Amino acid sequence: MCGRRLTIVKEAFAAISPECTGSITVAQARACFAYEEFDKWCEVIGVPCEDDKCIPWEQFCDFYTDISMAVFDEKSYI
To answer: How would residue 1 be classed by pLDDT, with cut points 50, 70 and 90?
Structure first.
């Protein structure tokens, strides 16, 4: 992934983890996302839906790279 999409993913990660630790917790992601079925997001990204579990930047980026490959329209992706 590159360009605008990568910038958006980096900004989203930074918004979840303002301290820029290189990983986020499930609790941090849950607080930022308005998903009704947050456990499904955890399942798809590949982490247990437990607040203390960590999601490293690489895993977060890989997840949204996969989505980027399936969504061709820039506006729909963003």
So the answer is: low
We report the CATH number of the domain holding residue 16 as 1.10.238.10
Give the pLDDT of residue 46: 94
Does 43 map to a domain?
yes
**Structural domain that includes position 17:** 3-71
DSSP, residue by residue, 15-65: HH-TT--SEEEHHHHHHH---TTHHHHHHHHT--S-TT-EEEHHHHHHHHH
Q: How many domains does the chain have?
A: 1
Full-model pTM: 0.82
